[in-house]
Amino acid sequence: MASAKKMDGMGALPHRGKVAFRVWAPYASEVSVVGAFNAWDPRKHPMQAEENGLWYADVADAKVGDEYKFHLVTPAGALDRIDPYAREVTSSVGNGVVHDAHFDWAGDDFHLAPWNALVIYELHVGTFNDENAKDDKPGQFGSVADRLGHLKKLGVNAIQIMPVAEFAGSRSWGYNPAHIFSVENAYGGPMALKRFVKRAHEHGIAVILDVVYNHFGPSDLDLWQFDGWSENGRGGIYFYNDDRAVTPWGETRPDFGRGEVRRFIRDNVLMWLDEYHIDGLRFDCTQYIRTVNGVERDLPDGWSLLGAISSDIAGRFPGRITIAEDLQNYRRLTQSVEDGGAGFGAQWDSNFVHPIRQAVITPQDEQRSIAAIRDAILYRYNDDAFDRVIYSESHDEVANGKARVPQEVDPADPQGWYAQKRSTLAAALVFTAPGIPMLFQGQEFLQGAYFRDTVPLDWDQRDAFHGIVRLYRDLIRLRLNREGCTRGLCGQFTQVFHVDDAGKVIAFHRWATGGPADDVVVVANFHHEAKDGYVIGLPTEGTWKLRFNSDWHGYSDDFANHPSADIVAEAGEFDGLPFHAAVAIGPYSVLIFSR
């Protein structure tokens, strides 16, 4: 009689009214699956040894929703372990749950916008919209979904959510994953994430997920010495067992050179894109994947894994975006795998955020470097202006000893004139410089202080600073050419033609193909005094319409509404350009003109 065909895959695999189980435990001498279906008796359902340390069992008594673990007999004794591939767990220290991944995705034919037309909004599920801030529970996917209308009206077309893999406790930034295949229960679990993604897509908003593969845990980590084996007192089969294990977060770096661990991580990447319809992934701290110490001493295992993952995604999910957080200005990350790169679509750009933040946070005007701002605007990793993500606030930039830009500008009055003017000055450069612009949650209504996973956004500030929200909305509309007159802001080309370090003014030209409705000129004043009759060069003749004035009174009662207006280019060389005009610009303000 022919034996029943085995199921492919790892973990708990529901099929035909029963459940197959497979686990990798090469140093175990016996393995069984225990759970609600057998009264947790390890004698009931022993698993069969397969090749390469795999164990398999088909359990007719098991069903979707049952809790389970693997029972391993090892030289270190008997061990009960949560399934590394568990799609659902009761908690980070609980049990696996047999999970049916099926979800009704009918009608979900969403496609990510082209990368030059992306505007990303980074958020933390637990604090973005915590409606019951006084209890000990964080916000959930459903509460985030309740604010999708705000995000759609704001104009963003992609949300980047901080990590949601099951972590220790119920409040965390998420960069301590205990179970990478399971979605944090405190946020609502796996089905809640799927419902959220589908609702976001219905609003025309993509979902990009932050993932952590440079280390696991370090707490609540059943992967640690999973089957009893280890060397040097380190982590066992899933981890390096020498000095390559060491990271700033613990000695829990995965063994990127071991085939089963590489598959574990690659399977996880593909799960998010396939089962959850995630539109892109942001990889945390890739410098601790491609190097041993984050700066030098290459880690070839990690580098080759990143390239393999990029190739997997490009082949199976074309159009999805991958973003590296490396912050070491390493061009190869966003070069193609074929050209020796890691194949990422974009990377967070420290060459933009640091000089731009410094320019607006610095108290004294004379200390602002217009040359540094120019270099931040023009920086490129490779040939594509949109292989970098640019921002003035991110979860890293508003914590770890730093605060929100308004707070940094004026700690004594983070909602006052200086904080409003200079934080929006930075934001205007985010939306007019070449790159993929990104906001951090609450930035659009002057959320202050610093980011903590226990402090929710103050949504009352959205109403109090509705004018600032409108300023961000207007910038996004121009950035995405929603009015049909600023296509150049989506274009590859930038020329910074005016750098006045004495007057603290910079002006630059953005374009895609050039011509009416395409050519855009941006003028930024980094000085506390307005400028009248201020002459700048212009690339072409004719009338340049003023599309945006950040000093407009409608954005804030505190703004002076300096009388800026359309300008007419006159013949005569200035700034190396064939035409010129005089502009009027308010203090700490930005003007956007287009033909």
Descriptive overview:
It is built from 13 helices and 26 strands. It has 3 domains: 11-97, Sandwich (Immunoglobulin-like), CATH 2.60.40; 115-216 and 266-479, TIM Barrel (Alpha-Beta Barrel); 488-594, Golgi alpha-mannosidase II (Immunoglobulin-like). The longest helix is centred in the middle third of the chain and has 17 residues, at 259-275. The termini are far apart. The protein has helices at 125-128, 141-145, 148-154, 189-202, 259-275, 287-290, 300-316, 350-361, 370-378, 405-409, 417-432, 460-464, 466-479; strands at residues 11-15, 18-24, 30-35, 48-49, 54-59, 67-74, 77-81, 96-97, 120-123, 158-161, 165-167, 177-183, 206-211, 280-283, 321-324, 346-348, 388-390, 436-440, 493-500, 505-511, 520-525, 531-538, 542-549, 567-574, 577-585, 590-594. The mean pLDDT is 97. α8 (350-361) runs antiparallel to α9 (370-378). By secondary structure, the chain is α/β, with parallel strands linked by helices. Strands 9-10-13-14-15-16-17-18 form an 8-stranded parallel β-barrel, surrounded by 4 helices. Strands 19-20-21-26-23-24-25-22 form an 8-stranded antiparallel β-sheet.
